[in-house]
UniProtKB/TrEMBL annotation:
GO molecular function: DNA binding
Lineage, highest ranks first: Bacteria, Pseudomonadati, Campylobacterota, Epsilonproteobacteria, Campylobacterales
InterPro entries: YbaB-like_sf (IPR036894), YbaB/EbfC (IPR004401)
Pfam families: YbaB_DNA_bd
Superkingdom, taxonomy of origin: Bacteria
Organism: Helicobacter winghamensis
A cellular component annotation (GO) from this entry: bacterial nucleoid
Protein known as: Nucleoid-associated protein BCM31_03075
Amino acid sequence: MFDPKELAKTLGDLQEKFQNAQEANKEVVLSAKSGGGLVSVSANGEGEIIDISIDDSLFEDKESLQILLMSALNDVLKSVESNRKNMAMQMLGNLGDFPLKG
């Protein structure tokens, strides 16, 4: 059986850890490239795009630019999602630390 006071403390600690992890996640930079580096996109751990770099040669080929940009954006968004899942798994791993009272 759970001790209500210990449970409340543990949940409070978990919430604080989650907030700290969210703040730290804003500092994480994830990047993806496409077209051999002709396009690169960077996002923070919250999924906000923070940088896009496009090689000048692509400005003459709109279709290629669009394809490479979509590819890089999709890749960086997959990285963001993977990062979020890893963070959630770490947080859930802490749930096993609940004190039991029997």
